[in-house]
Design a protein that fits this description.
Length: 116
């Protein structure tokens, strides 16, 4: 069974940095489009960043220039480097793997809290 496991969340002060990592198992990692979503309390889940075939990336406007998504197929990981964090970046961050209409997997989520 495919598994996605996130790590790297935690509490950080405004202006700080965190790196989230998602490790996939039992999957042909290289064929999947990978993404990071987040959900703040009382809000809908939103796409933060994704990496599509050909290493095309997309970012939520509010994180562009501060966050960077990267993928390492040999390690089966996708990472989200988050710099200059703001309180509004607080939420549960989820890793997502998608292969066309045939496969859509989610991790369990990792909490990121930006607070002084």
């Amino acid at each position: 069974q495919v598994q996605l496991v996130e790590s790297g969340g935690g509490l950080v002060q405004p202006g700080g940095s965190l790196t989230l990592t998602c490790t996939g198992s039992k999957m042909a990692f290289e064929i999947y489009d990978m993404a990071w979503y987040r959900q703040a309390p009382g809000k809908q889940r939103e796409l933060v960043a994704n990496m599509l075939s050909g290493n095309r990336t997309n970012y939520l406007d509010s994180v562009r220039g501060r966050f960077t998504i990267s993928k390492d197929n040999s390690k089966r990981t996708v990472s989200l480097q988050m710099n200059m964090l703001k309180p509004e970046d607080t939420g549960v961050y989820y890793c997502n793997a998608q292969f066309g209409p045939w496969a859509d997997y989610w991790g369990q989520g990792t909490q990121v809290t930006v607070s002084s």
